[in-house]
Write a structure and sequence with these properties.
The complex is a heterodimer of chains A (285) and B (118). Chain A has 285 residues and is mainly α. Chain A is built from 16 helices and no strands. In chain A, α1 packs antiparallel against α2 and α1 runs parallel beside α3. The longest helix of chain A has 24 residues. Chain B has 118 residues and is mainly alpha-helical. Chain B has a three-stranded antiparallel beta sheet. The longest helix of chain B is centred in the last third of the chain and has 28 residues. Chain B is globular and about 60 Å long. The chains are: A mainly alpha (285), B mainly alpha (118). At the A-B interface, α2 and α3 of A face α2 and α3 of B.
């Protein structure tokens, strides 16, 4: 590291000085003990200032045959010294590594792209890469996705949520599932369904519709019971099975709804809310 | 071309004087000159490579020092050796003579400054 830094100092000197004394300066630096090397840097810095500011006369370019203009041939001797064998070995090793790295990197263009997945015809918004490189290279991988296994549940759940006043009220964000926030907010939501202000929810307020005149009076309680027990969400809310959701049951609605979360993910989805018979008719059970 | 007069280069700067003194014997390479200067000055004058080669560049330009290529041996094949030429020896001789005069003058002055016996 120190040697490399000193070489940079030498390289900052004017070229004629560097050509003439650069090797000697570096050799002196190599021979100097470690404790003297900081002084060598200070000396090199002073030399830099001196050479550039006080020695303009030594920065003349080397004379060439043309500049001499005498017509006499100009001969130059070739240096007789040879680099150290270790330096030659290091240079050879560096050359081999550089060539190998270049050979490896050229085919990939510096970016590893084992296969390309995307639209068959690229658009500027889809792929922000060189269009020319893509034009000559077609997509070579096709990924086919099967049908979403939850899609039938979503369709059934959408119909079921829209037909159930209680679920339609609880699902405030209209995503056809009940989130943890919606579950925890259930008591307040259910109180809004109490249109009779009786402090409780009757089956009719929960969505039961029938014509009392067409149904025998004795059948009405059975219908109400059947309705409240048929829908899992109402059955869970009606903890005492009296076919009504009392004020106390409304207060504990969140805890009751959480019992329906079979997969314990915090959300109530269609597969946890749709009645078993309805799912079976749809072929999902 | 007229031969330069050694007196034109006097007085010499301390670094120049030490370098010429180092080269007064056998030819030396740069590191050898630095060691020799350190020895001559009893460790007080530690010449750095930048200062040394700046002086050598100037001394070669002025014609007092020249490079000796014949002395490159296998061990120091990269090293350049330098030696004094006739002008360099003349300048060094004149500078030493000048310094001797300075020393004599100084001793005389110092003797005259000694307090006389009562």
């Amino acid at each position: 590291m120190l040697r490399w830094l000193y070489i940079q100092f030498i390289w900052l000197h004017p070229a004629p000085f560097r050509w003439r004394f650069g090797d000697d300066m570096l050799d002196d630096f190599d021979r100097a003990p470690l404790r003297d090397k900081p002084r060598y840097f200070a000396d090199a810095a002073a030399s830099l200032v001196r050479q550039w500011l006080l020695r303009p006369e030594f920065r003349q370019p080397r004379p060439t045959a043309a500049s001499l203009g005498t017509g006499a041939p100009l001969f130059q001797t070739i240096e007789t010294w040879k680099p150290h064998p270790v330096a030659l070995l290091q240079g050879a090793l560096l050359a081999v590594v550089s060539i190998l790295a270049t050979v490896v990197l050229i085919p990939t263009g510096g970016v590893a792209v084992p296969f390309a997945i995307g639209a068959h015809f690229s658009t500027p918004g889809l792929l922000s890469v060189d269009r020319n490189s893509l034009a000559a290279r077609d997509l070579n991988t096709t990924v086919r996705l099967g049908p979403d296994p939850f899609e039938p549940w979503l369709k059934l759940g959408r119909r079921y949520f829209l037909s159930m006043p209680v679920l339609r009220a609880l699902d405030t964000d209209r995503d056809f599932s009940l989130s943890p926030w919606e579950i925890s907010n259930a008591p307040a939501t259910l109180r809004n369904l109490d249109t009779s202000h009786a402090g409780k929810l009757t089956p009719e307020e929960c969505g039961l519709h029938f014509d009392p005149t067409s149904v025998p009076a004795a059948m009405a309680p059975q219908l109400r019971h059947r309705f409240m027990s048929y829908h899992p969400v109402l059955a869970a809310l009606d903890a005492d099975h009296d076919d009504e959701i009392s004020a106390s049951e409304i207060d504990h609605a969140a805890a009751a709804l959480k019992k329906l979360d079979r997969n314990h993910d915090g959300y109530l989805t269609a597969d946890e809310l749709v009645p078993l018979e309805m799912a079976a008719r749809a072929g999902l059970r | 071309m007229m031969k330069p007069d050694p007196d034109d280069f006097l007085p010499l700067a301390p670094a120049t004087l030490h370098i010429l003194l180092s080269l007064a014997g056998e030819p030396m390479h740069g590191y050898g000159i630095m060691r020799e200067v350190l020895r001559q000055s009893s460790g007080r004058y530690n010449l750095g490579p930048g200062t040394l080669y700046d002086n050598l560049q100037r001394l070669m330009k002025q014609g007092m020092v020249e490079e000796v290529t014949a002395l490159r041996d296998e061990e120091n094949s990269r090293r350049r050796y330098y030696r004094l030429n006739s002008l360099g020896r003349g300048v060094l001789s004149q500078e030493i003579a000048r310094l001797e005069g300075v020393v004599q003058e100084g001793r005389m002055r110092l003797r005259s400054l000694k307090p006389g016996r009562a």
